[in-house]
Amino acid sequence: MTCVDCGGTLHPLSYPPEDGWEPGDVVAYRCPDCNERFDIVLGDPDDTDDTDTY
Ligand SMILES: [Zn+2]
After folding, report:
1. Residue 51 falls within a domain, yes or no?
2. How far apart are CA 4 and CA 23, in angstroms?
């Protein structure tokens, strides 16, 4: 996961649940470089589309 603003590495603000993330879960990430926060909705892992165009 890369910051679209500065290219830094995003770190999740919360730990994954015991059963792991599920599609549709919203995970908050923060960029340590520019302090920007991103709320990312996890997609269906079976969806092979490249959804990087966020
Ligand atoms: Zn950043």
Report:
1. no
2. 22
Cα 20 to middle of ligand 1, angstroms: 25
How many structural domains is the chain composed of?
1
Is residue 53 a part of any domain in this protein?
no
Task: Please check whether residue 10 is in contact with residue 36, taking contact to mean a CB–CB distance below 8 angstroms.
Answer: no
Distance 39 CA to ligand 1 centre (A): 13
Q: Which two tokens stand for residue 54?
A: 């966020």
**pTM of this prediction exceeds 0.85:** no
Domain that holds residue 10: 1-46
45 CA to centre of ligand 1 in angstroms: 25
Low-confidence ranges of the chain (pLDDT < 70): 45-54
pLDDT of residue 8: 96
CA of 7 to the centre of ligand 1 (A): 6
